[in-house]
Amino acid sequence: MKAFRVLSLAVTLLASSAFASTYTVKPGDTLSSIARMAGMEPAALMQQNHLSTTTLQVGQKVQYGTATSPSKPSAQASAPQRSSGGAYIRAAASRFLNIRYVLGGTGGRGIDCSAYTRAVFSQLGVNLPRTAREQFRVGTPVSRGNLQAGDLVFFNTIGGVSHVGIYLGNGQFANANSYQGRTIIESMTTAYWSAHYIGARRVLNG
């Protein structure tokens, strides 16, 4: 049944892919599933529809595609471009700010810390594992004194590697914060985060 729904959604989207089209959200749809079938990145779909959250309501109208080209929208056209000073990292991280925190969430109802880092890094061409613990095993270890924008920073909040965020420079990092209930940018130098910091990994080259 699930496979049929995915196929049905794909057919609906592809049938009018040459135009800017509207899709009506149905039960079970998520932003990620609609974006995938439309051949778009979730962030591009959010940007096109001026969405500040990944949460969608049944019956909601979602625009996708372009009115000027029959080809699928290019994720590269809207993806943050690498530049000096880590501005592109902040731009990528900011695309997914103020999304509701949900433990285990990966899409429509909200996201958790590792889902947030995955979403951001997908815009930068990096496919991260699902959990914070798994993400801690990828890339290259980095000392706290050598952190640079784009490094994954990890914390022990409930035992072991249990939280991950993205370092933005100047002591700031972006993360899906369960206490705040949303994805935010905050300081790593607070007493709480300083006490719970356990390490960093570098997964971006250059």
UniProtKB/TrEMBL annotation:
Signal peptide: 1-20
Limits of the LysM domain: 21-64
Family named by the database record: Belongs to the peptidase C40 family.
Domain NlpC/P60: 82-204
Classification via Pfam families: LysM (PF01476), NLPC_P60 (PF00877)
Keywords: Hydrolase, Protease, Repeat, Signal, Thiol protease
Molecular function via GO: cysteine-type peptidase activity
Chain positions covered by the region annotation Disordered: 63-82
One BP term from GO: proteolysis
Composition-biased stretches (Low complexity): 66-82
Name the UniProt record assigns to this protein: Peptidase
InterPro entries: LysM, LysM_dom_sf, Murein_DD/LD_carboxypeptidase, NLP_P60_dom, Papain-like_cys_pep_sf
